[in-house]
Each structure stands twice: as structure tokens, then as C-alpha cells.
DNA sequence: AGGCAGTACTG
DNA sequence: CAGTAC
DNA sequence: GCCT
């Protein structure tokens, strides 16, 4: 029995290995494949969590290390450099060597590494930074500069010929920055970047400075002030595949990624379905990012090495056998088996339809009894998001998986009339609208919203006066707009840095990962998910450190402004997460922050879960359950 | 007709 | 436990 | 509401 189960699990992983082949070294799929070895060893350990690690778990326990091995550890966020492209790293680990091509590059760094032991050189020695301003810095900025220095940054006290990079406070404009510089200085040929560039480089390795998000406010990118990035790329051309995250999605829009069976690919982002602002995302970054990607692929032979060493090929046989013995599990039924589909958001011709369908979903979502109908609308919308052509007729629509007899005509209606009667109907019903509004409050669902509407409340202000609010709901109302505002990627990084900074003061060995849509490469996120782990540590240990030290410290410094849920100890269970809100210094907008306590052995499963997206997770779990297994955030 | 992911936290 | 969130 |  036990061996059967093990075998079944092996097969499951073989399928995941197979996915490596389908996956495109970006987003969810490689996360799962990279994490799978960590996941593999034990599923029952939850009950034995506090016991010592069994020998069979060694692989799991060491897996993140293995993943990290080929790249120099980044001290600021040590773990960050590992699993971003787990597929790649895993493959490298399996072939037991750094690919020759990247060996060369890394050897070039060896010298400095001995000078700065245990530190990864991020900034090559020829770079010299002038920070603007360089006085009156916040302590956070100061610590970031220190960190940069530890990673090879040379700092200039004032402007000189040696300066290669001028790093400007992200809130400063170009003209403000220029005022800080000596009159005569005309920084031609000097790269001007904003603070984010340094921060992201610290986190993920040297970033290409020639990207929009690193541009100094008010700079036009092509001025003489903004040198091209070629000099940046030379010293460390391959840093990108050390990322813990996918690059922002839009970059690959131009790439064609043929589907296995003509059918559309993965489900859409939750972001996509929940928030249409996503869809207007930076078109202007696309070309740039696309070019960057091509450039990197071209410049980085390591990528080809990885392809050659692709281990998935050896599982081909298994895959075929399994398929024939499991006819039901037709490949196309599981979105988690599909390659990530890019080319959705901005360029999708079905945008209007998608938006309206998602509004339908939101309406049904506000009604607990209609959760499945809501789910169907969301899935239909995400199916449309994968279409490359406009779906205009009922017949076209009905052919798409996930769109059936009821939604298909609605799609035609939307395309021909530009509106959906059923939706207008709901929107014209004030009670309906109010219910939807209320259910958007954090801590309020369909049941509560309906009850309040029934009780005659009509506005959020009404609710504020209502005494029966839970503390969380009150926060949800007070910060209704805050929590609905998307968080730019750069700000997610800032939150991560602050947490990491506090973390390091507590225990150098604590590691953190930013998960969620950030990890999938989204240009913005709805909330911030931070996983905290430590080699060899169990849930209790992480929980204790975080709750006793980290959270209080972050509260004290005014970063954490609210606690929404922090769990409680029971006989058997250790709290596994903390949920709350944080604010960046000098800002006022509250952000939803989740901190997850991840036992070292569960890192693989946790990364799968907390990278998502939702549809991917649900699909993968469904697949597991069809195979008589269960997948959750702790393991398989 | 029955399933649709699986778990954690609050009150 | 129901409701809510992830 | 869709799929099996």
C-alpha cells in the first residue's frame, strides 16, 4: 500500500516533470516543477512536524540549497535568488554543474567573492554610484546603500568623472536631481536611474537599468542623460535567470507559443478576472521588455545549456503509459498542464466581453448561493482572455471550453449590443448594487452583505456607524479604497525590503520570498505575500520568531498598521500565517500584507501554493485528487 | 445528477 | 459552526 | 453555469 502510494506520487511528479517541457521557464509551472523535489519526500509530516527530519526528507530539506547552489547567494534576500526560475536552477543542479558558459562569467567574480566572503557581488567594480540626495536619507535608504556597498557598489561622495550611475530617490524628478548636481556637470554618458533599480538589483541581481520602471521621474528615456544599458549588461549578463520571480508578463507578448492541442492555454490570472485595470497595463513597456527578453535569450548561452539538459525527456515513456491507462485524465482538461499563455491583457480583442463577464461573476459572487455560477463566469472570462481573435458569435463562443449554452449567447449579446441586459438589470437595482459594494469590503462576504442590505443599509458610511462590525470589517471599510488599489511592483519590493531588513536583525538565517502575483511577474499586485522560512526550521520556530520579534518590531517602526488575523495556538496546530496591513514610510496608503510561516520542509509546496495563480492551484489540486492524492500548501 | 481545491482564521 | 479569506 |  505504502509503496503503491509512493509510486502514484512518483507518477504525479513525473507529470510535473513533463510540464517542464510544456512550461516556458516563466511563472507557475516552473515553480511547481522546481519545488517538486522539496515536495516529494513526505506528505504526512504535518502530524510529525515537530519531530526530527527523517533521512528521507533530506532531499527536501536541502532542495532550496541545491537550487541556490549555482548562483552566488544574495545576502539581502538569500532565498530570493534561488527559486525564481526553479526549472532552470533545478536542471542545473541535476546536471550537477554550472553550465560551462556561465562558469566563465562566475569565475570572473571569484576574486571579489573572496574579498567579500559570503557576499555576492552584484555591482561590478567599474560601477560607481552617486546617490541623489546623498544626505538626509531615511534609515531604510541608508541600509539599502550599505547593502549595496556590501555587494560591490562603489559610492561617490560627490559628482566626479568616476561616477557611472546617478541613483535618484524614486520620488524625485529629474530636474530636482539635477539641482543637486554641480552646475557645470552635464552627466552625459552617465546612467541615471531611480532608487528602485538598486533595490531590485540587490534583490534579484543586476537589473537592466534601461527599463521604464527604473527611469527617473520626468526623464524621457532617450535624452542624453539616459545612457543605454549596454554597459550594464556586460558585466553580468545572465543575472536575470537567477531571479526569484518571473519578469513582468508583458515582455513576451510578441513570442508565439503554439499550443499542444489548439485549445487555449491556462486560466487567466485572478487579477485579470477581478480587476480590469490590469488589462490596460503598460503597453509601452511591452516592446522594451520584449526586446530585453530576446536580448537575454541571445546573450545567455546558459539557457541553451538548460534546454539540452532538460530532464523531462526521460519521462516521456511514463507519460505515455500513464495517459493510456488513465484515459479520463485527458491532458486538455487540466489548465495546470498548459503552458502559460501570454498575450492576454492589453492586446486581447475580447476585453469588453471579459470585463462584463467578470462583472457578472462579481454579482453572483456577492451571493453565497451562487458561488458556482460565479466561478463559471470567471472561468468563461478567463477562457476568453486566452482567445487571440474576437469571439463575436454564439457559435464561436460555444466551442470554447468553459463556455456553454448560457454564456455563449451572452457573449454574442455583448459583442453586438455592447451591453448585457442581465448585467444592466442588476446594475439598475440599487439593492443589488449595494450588496456587491458591501461584499467588496474586506471581511464581508455575500451573507453579511445581504444581511446588511436587508437591514436597510445603503452606504459604507451607514456601515461605519453600525456597531456590529467586526474589527476587521471596520478596517476594511476605513481602507476600502486602499485595499482596492493595485500595488505597483516597485512598491511590493519596498515592502519586502522592510520586512527583510527587520528579519535580518532578528536572525540572519531567516529567509523570505515574495509570492503571489509578484512572483508571477505581474506589474502590480493586489496584496503582498511574504513567505518566511529558515533552513531546518519548523512552523513553530518560524511562528515564534515572527510573532514575538518581527511583527512587534515592524509595528513599532510604524510599518505594520493593522493586524487582521494572526492565528492562535491549539493543542495540535501552530498558527501558520499572519495577515494585516502595512504602510511605507512617508506614505499613507495601507497595503494588505500576508506573512506565511513556512516550515523548511514545506517550502516546495508552499511556493507552489503561494505563487498560484488561483486557477492553477485549483486545477493542480483537482488533478491530484483525480489521482487519489491530495495537494495542499504543506505537501502532496 | 453531482462535482466544482483545500485549508486557516474569526466570532 | 458559518462565514470569510487565501 | 459548465463539465463529465
From TrEMBL:
One Gene Ontology cellular component annotation held by this UniProt entry: nucleus
Active site: 410
Bias-annotated ranges (Basic and acidic residues): 8-18, 231-250, 271-282
Region named Disordered: 1-111, 218-285
Stored PROSITE patterns: BRCT
Record has Cell cycle as a keyword: no
CDD domains: NT_POLXc
The reaction(s) this protein catalyses: DNA(n) + a 2'-deoxyribonucleoside 5'-triphosphate = DNA(n+1) + diphosphate
EC number: 2.7.7.7
Keywords carried by this UniProt record: DNA damage, DNA repair, DNA replication, DNA synthesis, DNA-directed DNA polymerase, Lyase, Nucleotidyltransferase, Nucleus, Transferase
Main enzyme class: transferase
Entry's family note: Belongs to the DNA polymerase type-X family.
Function: DNA polymerase that functions in several pathways of DNA repair. Involved in base excision repair (BER) responsible for repair of lesions that give rise to abasic (AP) sites in DNA. Also contributes to DNA double-strand break repair by non-homologous end joining and homologous recombination. Has both template-dependent and template-independent (terminal transferase) DNA polymerase activities. Has also a 5'-deoxyribose-5-phosphate lyase (dRP lyase) activity.
Name this protein carries in UniProt: DNA polymerase
Biological classification of the source: Eukaryota, Fungi, Dikarya, Ascomycota, Pezizomycotina
Amino acid at each position: 500500500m505504502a509503496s503503491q502510494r509512493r509510486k502514484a506520487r512518483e507518477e504525479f511528479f513525473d507529470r510535473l516533470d513533463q510540464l517542464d517541457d510544456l512550461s516556458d521557464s516563466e511563472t507557475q509551472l516552473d515553480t511547481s516543477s522546481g519545488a517538486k523535489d522539496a515536495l516529494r519526500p513526505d506528505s504526512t509530516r504535518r502530524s510529525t512536524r515537530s519531530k526530527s527530519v527523517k533521512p528521507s526528507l533530506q532531499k527536501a530539506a536541502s532542495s532550496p540549497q541545491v537550487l541556490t547552489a549555482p548562483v552566488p547567494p544574495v545576502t539581502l534576500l538569500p532565498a530570493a535568488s534561488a527559486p525564481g526560475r526553479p526549472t532552470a536552477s533545478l536542471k542545473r543542479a541535476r546536471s550537477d554543474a554550472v553550465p560551462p558558459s556561465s562558469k566563465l562569467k562566475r569565475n570572473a567574480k571569484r576574486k571579489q567573492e573572496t574579498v567579500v566572503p559570503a557576499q555576492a557581488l552584484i555591482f561590478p567594480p567599474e560601477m560607481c554610484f552617486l546617490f541623489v540626495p546623498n544626505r538626509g536619507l531615511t534609515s531604510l535608504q541608508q541600509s539599502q546603500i550599505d547593502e549595496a556597498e556590501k555587494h560591490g557598489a562603489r559610492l561617490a561622495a560627490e559628482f566626479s568623472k568616476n561616477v557611472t550611475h546617478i541613483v535618484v530617490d524614486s520620488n524625485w524628478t529629474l530636474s530636482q536631481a539635477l539641482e543637486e548636481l554641480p552646475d557645470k556637470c552635464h552627466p552625459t554618458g552617465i546612467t541615471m536611474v531611480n532608487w528602485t533599480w538598486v533595490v531590485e538589483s540587490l534583490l534579484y541581481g543586476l537589473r537592466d537599468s534601461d527599463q521604464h520602471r527604473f527611469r527617473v521621474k520626468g526623464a524621457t528615456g532617450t535624452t542624453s542623460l539616459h545612457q543605454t544599458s549596454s554597459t550594464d549588461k556586460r558585466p553580468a549578463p545572465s543575472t536575470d535567470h537567477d531571479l526569484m520571480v518571473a519578469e513582468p508578463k508583458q515582455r513576451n507578448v510578441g513570442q508565439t507559443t503554439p499550443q499542444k492541442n489548439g485549445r487555449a492555454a491556462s486560466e487567466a490570472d485572478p487579477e485579470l478576472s477581478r480587476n480590469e485595470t490590469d488589462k490596460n497595463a503598460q503597453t509601452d513597456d511591452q516592446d522594451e521588455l520584449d526586446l530585453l527578453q530576446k536580448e537575454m535569450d541571445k546573450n545567455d548561452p546558459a539557457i541553451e545549456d538548460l534546454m539540452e539538459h532538460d530532464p523531462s525527456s526521460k519521462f516521456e515513456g511514463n507519460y505515455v503509459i500513464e495517459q493510456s491507462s488513465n484515459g479520463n485524465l485527458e491532458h486538455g482538461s487540466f489548465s495546470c498542464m498548459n503552458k502559460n499563455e501570454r498575450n492576454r491583457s492589453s492586446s486581447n480583442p475580447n476585453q469588453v466581453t471579459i470585463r462584463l463577464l467578470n462583472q457578472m461573476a462579481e454579482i453572483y459572487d456577492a451571493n453565497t448561493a451562487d458561488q458556482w455560477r460565479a466561478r463559471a463566469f470567471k472561468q468563461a472570462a478567463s477562457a476568453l482572455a486566452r482567445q487571440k481573435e474576437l469571439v463575436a458569435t454564439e457559435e464561436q463562443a460555444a466551442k470554447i471550453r468553459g463556455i456553454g449554452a448560457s454564456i455563449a449567447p451572452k457573449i454574442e449579446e455583448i459583442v453586438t449590443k455592447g451591453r448585457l441586459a442581465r448585467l444592466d438589470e442588476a446594475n439598475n437595482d440599487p439593492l443589488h448594487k449595494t450588496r456587491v459594494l458591501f461584499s467588496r469590503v474586506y471581511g464581508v462576504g455575500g451573507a453579511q452583505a445581504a444581511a446588511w442590505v436587508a437591514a436597510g443599509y445603503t452606504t459604507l458610511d451607514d456601515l461605519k456607524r453600525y456597531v456590529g462590525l467586526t474589527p476587521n470589517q471596520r478596517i476594511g471599510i476605513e481602507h476600502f479604497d486602499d485595499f482596492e488599489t493595485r500595488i505597483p511592483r516597485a512598491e511590493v519590493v519596498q515592502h519586502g525590503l522592510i520586512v527583510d531588513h527587520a528579519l535580518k536583525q532578528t536572525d540572519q538565517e531567516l529567509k523570505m520570498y515574495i509570492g503571489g502575483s509578484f512572483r508571477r511577474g505581474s506589474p502590480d499586485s493586489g496584496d503582498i505575500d511574504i513567505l518566511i522560512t529558515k533552513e531546518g526550521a519548523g512552523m513553530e520556530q518560524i511562528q515564534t520568531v515572527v510573532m514575538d520579534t518581527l511583527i512587534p518590531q515592524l509595528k513599532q517602526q510604524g510599518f505594520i498598521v493593522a493586524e487582521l488575523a494572526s492565528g492562535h495556538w491549539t493543542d495540535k496546530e501552530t498558527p501558520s500565517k499572519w495577515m494585516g496591513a502595512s504602510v511605507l514610510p512617508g506614505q499613507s496608503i495601507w497595503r494588505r500584507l500576508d506573512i506565511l510561516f513556512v516550515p523548511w520542509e514545506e517550502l516546495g509546496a508552499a511556493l507552489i501554493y503561494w505563487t498560484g495563480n488561483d486557477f492553477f492551484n485549483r486545477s493542480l489540486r483537482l488533478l491530484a485528487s483525480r489521482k487519489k492524492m491530495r495537494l495542499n500548501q504543506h505537501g502532496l
